[in-house]
Amino acid sequence: MTADTAPAVPRPPARPTAAPVLTGAQAVVRSLELLGVTDVFGIPGGAIMEVYDPLMASTELRHILVRHEQGGGHAAEGYATASGKVGVTIATSGPGATNLVTAIADAYMDSIPIVAITGQVFSRLMGTDAFQEADIVGITMPITKHSILVKRPEDIPGAIAAAFEIASTGRPGPVLVDITKDAQQATAPFVWPPKYDLPGYRPVTKAHGKQIQAAATLLAEAKKPVLYVGGGIIRGRASEELLALAELTGAPVVTTLMARGAFPDSHPQHVGMPGMHGTVPAVLALQEADLLVALGTRFDDRVTGKAELFAPNAKVVHVDIDPAEISKIRTADVPIVGGVREVITDLEAAFRGLTGGAKGDIEEWWAYLDGLRAEFPLGYTAPEDGLMSPQHVIQRIGELTGPEAVYAAGVGQHQMWAAQFIKYERPNSWLNSGGAGTMGYAVPAAMGAKVAEPERVVWAIDGDGCFQMTNQELATCVINDIPIKVAIINNSSLGMVRQWQTLFYEGRHSNTDLNTGHGTIRIPDFVKLAEAYGCLAIRVEKEEEIDAAIKLALETNDRPVVIDFVVSADAMVWPMVPQGVSNSYIQYARDHAPAFDEED
């Protein structure tokens, strides 16, 4: 037998590479790295200190030290909303974790994918009222998609991987992972990818064909259809599919507060934002429609007004990936559970199959809506006190900056004006606290958005009340080279509360004056405060100074910019539907409501 024909000597089987043994704290950091995380926002403390030691050695994770845990949570939200990725925030036990609760609740209401990692006291001390102990899993259970308590180091990779999957799939939302200190200190083999089980968690993305066909039939037959678009279009990355469906059907489109930018404002089929402060055409389009195709929206009370009087003659097709939302407020004639992008694609094909691509008989409907657009354009009147109009300030910010920027708003009048008077042309360009209405959201959310999208201009449009809740994150921005622009719409008051007091409480302005604006003692002086934080600070009190200040802010990228726009306290948000009545009673301005046919 020659050497060429001799049988090969069998080789011993390759030894499996032994899993590295890591501490639980190291496993946290390594899991985040392997999940592709690049940025986290947090503050160390006693129960999470173990994680911060290996975090310091990581070359793949950028940790941004915030000044308050709520700021870290909102920053994670802004990061997620602007980028579509999962935002991550870290806090210690007890007050550190409870300071995250507001941001977690905010993310839950607005379907924002964030993962909050908190430290917990030693497992043997749990339930003893140990120092800085709080049952954060129990506290957050109603406001998270899932809350996980980890007591063993070997369970950490699976818990974090599961948290990311739950946060980012189905209807997105926050997930909390609480890790005891002994789990962080102990060691275990680090196995990746980890195995984990999510019993019962099976988000449905593909809808039932019969429901799609039924929806297409209603849409083809409707004389007054409306595509009622919610934030699910943005979360579901379905803007392109929405545009195709809208242009195929010719139906008018309304975009809710959470859906601004999901459909281009410049498109002729866009009739505006509906709701309490929506445009007259958008509000009455929903109210007088014969068919609502609700896409990724939840019939929020700020949109419907008095729910039993909302769109009384309309049939409803309701599309949502969360089955709990279907028929929760308004019974759906055609309920469709599924991913909104897949559903719209199927609905477009079904509609085309039924109609051959021809639009429905909706000319009269459009004539009516175009008449409303002509008669009730979005606008404002100059304040009578001679001070600047906040609407004009915000409109100029949008016009001079453009649609490629990201705009984050606080909560209140300035939020509504930012939704109304800035033109949004793309998804993920508008950040706000819609469901929870969290004052203090804007500055940290803008900070997170700028970290996620460093090449974009990022504005925080804030009120003087909101700004005083989280402005300490300006220190975070300066130290970490995060050059956001902040526009304080300073009416020296809690503006939206003041508006309601003017309209419904006979002008009794109880505890709404903040003493920050025109003719007051200016505590704090926002220019001095911003300068103390190392920002470029500008005060604008005259209309002719507005554009120059905005342009200077846009030209300044070596530090954050804060502009104190001193505006009138008497400006109000219009249109407005008073709470608890039919949307048909929308007021275009004070004592000015459009006529409508109550019998239609």
TrEMBL record:
Its cofactor is Mg(2+); thiamine diphosphate. Residues 212-347 form the Thiamine pyrophosphate enzyme central domain. One of its GO terms (biological process) is L-valine biosynthetic process. GO terms for molecular function: acetolactate synthase activity; flavin adenine dinucleotide binding; magnesium ion binding; thiamine pyrophosphate binding. The keyword Transmembrane helix does not apply. NCBIfam families: acolac_lg, PRK07789.1. This is Acetolactate synthase.
